[in-house]
Amino acid sequence: MNRNLSTAEAIKRWDRFADTYASTHGEHGDIHKEVFLNPTIFSLAGQLHNKRVLDAGCGEGYLSRKLANLGATVTAVDYSLRMIEIARDRKSMELPIEYRQGNCEDLNFIEENNFDLIVSNMVIQDLANYKQAFQEMYRLLIDGGIFIFSILHPCFVTPNSGWEKTADGNKLHWNVDNYFYEGAFEQPLGNEEKIVLFHRTLTNYINSLMETGFSLERVEEPKPSKEMLEKYPSFEEDLRCPDFIVFKLRK
Ligand SMILES: C[S@@+](CC[C@H](N)C(=O)[O-])C[C@H]1O[C@@H](n2cnc3c(N)ncnc32)[C@H](O)[C@@H]1O
C-alpha cells in the first residue's frame, strides 16, 4: 500500500502496459469481459440505437466498437495516449467513434449535458479522485441520462486479498484484509508491470454517488452463466466469490 501514488503515476503505468494489455483484447475484450462484464453492461444499457454514448476510460476500444456496432454514436476518452493510439488503429472507418485523450476526473473539453449514456468499464478504481470523476459524469449526462460503471468488487478485492491455498495448490477460501484502507495499492498485471489501483469502501462509493445527485437504479455482482461455464469451466470458482460489481445510476 502506498498512499502517495497518483492518477498520473497510474497512467504512466497504463501507457507502458498498453500494448501488452491490448494484445489480450479482441472483439469481446478479454475473457473476464466476455464472461462477466459484457452481458451485465449490455443488459443494463438497453437499446443503443441513436444513443450518444461516452466510453469513459476506453482502453484499446473494444467496448466503444461494440456500442457503435449497436447503433450508438460514441465519444471515447482515455488518459493513456498509447491506449488512444491503439484504439484509433483498431477502429474501422465507418464506425462513429471519436477517440480523445482525457482524464475522467476533468473532461472540461466536453460540454455539459452531452450524453444519453456513459459507460465506464473497470476504470473508476484506477483513478485517485473518484468523487470528481462522478461529478464529471453527472455534468456530462443529459437529465435522466444513465451512468453504468464496473469496478473490482471493493468488498473482496482489497489490498492483499487472495486465495488461501493448501500446500499442493488447492483453493480453500478467499482471504480479504484491509477493507477500511482508503487509497492506492499496487497489483501485478502480467509478469512485467504493477498497476496502481485505488481502494475505497462500498459505503463511500454509494454515498459519493448519492451526494453527486445520482439515483441508484440497479447493482449487479456478475456471475458466469451456464453457457459461459460450459465454455470456460475454470470460472466455476467465481460462483464462490464475486470479482466485480456493476452500478446503474440515473441523473
Ligand atoms: C482496466 S483498463 C479498462 C479499459 C476499457 N474500459 C476496457 O474495458 O477494456 C483501465 C483503463 O482506464 C484508463 N484510465 C485510468 N485512469 C484514467 C483516467 N483518470 N482517465 C481516463 N482513463 C483512465 C487506463 O488508461 C486504461 O485504459
Could you describe the 3D structure shown?
- By secondary structure, this protein is an alpha/beta fold.
- It has a single domain (7-155, 202-250), classed as 3-Layer(aba) Sandwich (Rossmann fold), CATH 3.40.50.
- The protein is built from 7 helices and 11 strands.
- Strands 3-2-1-4-5-11-10 form a 7-stranded mixed sheet, with helices on both faces. A two-stranded antiparallel sheet has the order 6-7. It has a two-stranded antiparallel ribbon with strand order 8-9.
- α5 links the parallel β4 (115-121) and β5 (141-152).
- The longest helix is centred in the N-terminal third of the chain and has 17 residues, at 7-23.
- The chain is globular.
- The two termini are 34 Å apart.
- The model has no long low-confidence stretch (mean pLDDT 94).
- The chain binds S-adenosylmethionine.
- S-adenosylmethionine is lined by residues 7, 10-11, 14, 29, 33, 57-59, 62-63, 77-80, 83, 103-105, 121-123, 126-127.
Give the end-to-end Cα distance, rounded to a whole number of Å: 34 Å
Provide the CATH architecture: 3-Layer(aba) Sandwich
Q: Which structural class matches the secondary elements?
A: alpha/beta
Beta strand %: 25-35%
**For this structure, what is the CATH homologous superfamily?**
Vaccinia Virus protein VP39
Please tell me what the overall shape is.
globular
